[in-house]
Amino acid sequence: MALQTINPTTTEAWKKLQEHFITVQTKHLKDLFSEHPERVEDMSIKWEDFFVDYSKNRITSTTKAHLIELANEVQLKDAMAKYFGGDVINQTEGREVLHTALRNPEGAEVIVNGINVMPEIFEVKLKIKNFSDQIIDGTLTGHSGKPFTDVVNIGIGGSDLGPAMVVDALSYYQNHLTPHFVSNVDGDHVNEVIKNLNPETTLFVIVSKTFTTQETLSNANTIREWFLSHAPQNAISQHFVAVSTNIEKVKAFGIDEQNIFPMWNWVGGRFSLWSAVGLSISLSVGYENYDALLLGAHKMDQHFRTEPFESNIPVITGLLSVWYNNFFNSESEAIIPYSQYLNQFATYLQQGIMESNGKGIDRNGDKIDYQTGTIIWGEPGTNSQHAFFQLIHQGTKLIPAEFIGFAKSLHGNQDHQDKLMSNFFAQTEALMNGKTEDTVISELKAQGHSQETIEKLTPFKVFDGNRPTTTILINKLTPESLGKLIAMYEHRIFVQGIVWNIFSYDQFGVELGKQLANTILEELNAENVINNHDESTQSLIDHYNSLK
Prior knowledge:
Layout: H1 12-24, H2 29-35, H3 39-42, E1 44-47, E2 50-53, H4 61-73, H5 76-85, E3 111-112, E4 115-116, H6 118-137, E5 150-154, H7 158-169, E6 178-182, H8 187-194, E7 202-207, H9 214-228, H10 236-239, E8 240-243, H11 247-253, E9 260-261, H12 279-285, H13 287-306, H14 313-326, E10 332-337, H15 345-357, E11 375-377, H16 389-394, E12 401-408, H17 414-433, H18 437-446, H19 451-461, E13 469-476, H20 479-499, H21 511-524, H22 535-547
Parallel strand pairs: 5-6, 5-7, 7-8, 8-9, 10-11, 10-12, 12-13
Antiparallel strand pairs: 1-2, 2-13, 3-4
C-alpha cells in the first residue's frame, strides 16, 4: 500500500505550532529551565546504553506535544508499519525499503512479492562469514600462496561511504588486514592507494549493483591492469570479488561466480552497508563484530517500531529537526562526535540525510512551498572547537548542534578521556548559557584593564547563549552501539520524510550531472565534436582541451 500524502502545513498541529512559535521564539533556555524544574527528566531518554538529553533545545512541553500531534496527523505510525512491512514506499522507483530486514534475527519473516526473504538474507550472511573467516585465518590465499595483508574496497556513494565510515569507526577492533577505499574517479586517488600495495597479498572488493557505475568500473579496470602487470590472468579469480547483481558482467571481468555476493533492489545504496556491501567491514573487524553491528541496528529498529513517540529517540530527534528547519528557519545542523573514531560520521550522514530528504516535490507530485532537507555538517570535537565553533557561539545563524560522546575510552587513558569529556559538557553549557555583559565586565576588571578598554572590549566578549543542542551520551564505542547510532539516524530520515510529505528513497537529482558528463566525455575524446553547451561550459571545455 502507498504512503498517505498529507501536506504538513495543512494540519491542525502545524497551525498550532505556528501560533506557539510566536510565544517561544524569543524565550531564553535559561528561563525555560527556571520555569520547568523537571525539564531534564521530562526531556531526556534513557535506553539501553544511550542517554539522550534534549532539554537544551528551544522547546517547551507544549512544543513537544504539538510536534507529536503533527507526527500523528501525518500518519507516521501507519507509515512505519508500511516501512517495516515491506510495502512499496519508494513509489517513484517501485521498490520496497527494507534495509531493516538485513539485521533481523534468524526466524523473522519479511514478505516481498509473496516470498519470505529472510532465508536468502541469512544464506548471504553465512557466505560473508565463511569468506571473511577464510581470508582472515589464511585458508584462502593469493595466487602465490601468500596470505592476504590488505583489502581494497572499490565503490562510490553508499558502496563506499558506509563501509569506509564503519571501518574507520571500528578501527580499534581491526584485525591484521589493512583496509583501503577507492571511490573518486580521480586517477590520482586510485594510484595513491595502489602504489604501495603488494599485488600478491591484496584482495579487491568491487561494489557496484549494476557493475556499470562509471567511477567504480574505471577504478576497477585501472586496478585490474595494474594487477595483471604483476600477475597472470587466472590470478584475478583469487584476488577479486564483487558485490553486484550483474553476474554476467562480473564474470566477464574475470571474477569467479562463487565470489559474487548478491544485492537486492529493496535496499537503497545509502543504506546498504548492512548487506554484502559490508563485506569489507566483516573482513576488517571480523564477522563477529560485523554481526554485533547488525544486532545494534536491530535493537534500534525495535525501539523505533515499538516505543511511544514521547520516548522514541528517532521520532523526537527527527521532530526537533523539523521544528528548527520549518519554524526557526535553521537551514543547517551540526553533528559533533567527541571521538576521533567517528571522523567520517558527519560525511556519511551527509549522503544519508541530504540525498534522502533534499527534495522539492511532494508525494502528490506537486512543488513544495515549505523547507525540506537540512544541510548536515560537522567534525569531531575537540578539533572543531578550534575551527567553526566561533560561528555557532557568536554568529548570526542559529545552528542546532548534536553532541555525541562516549563515557569510556577504548584505550583506557582516563586523563585524556576526562579532558575530552570536560570539553564535551562545557560546550553545550556555554552554548546554552552564554556569557552576560556583567560577567564580561567583572572578568575584564579582574584582569586589570582600564575602564576605556573594558567599554571597548565588552560587546565583543558577550555571548548571547540560547543556542540549542542535543546530547547523545553512550557508554562505550562498540560495534553494537555504533549499529544503534547509525540506525537512529536512518529512522530519523524516515520520520522527517514522512512529515515533509516527500519520497526519501529515490535520488533522481544525482542523475542529470552524470548524463551530461557522459556526453561531455565523448566530446573530450573525439575531434570536431560540437555539442550545444552554454557559453561558459564550452569555454571551460575548450580551455581544458588546450591544456591536455
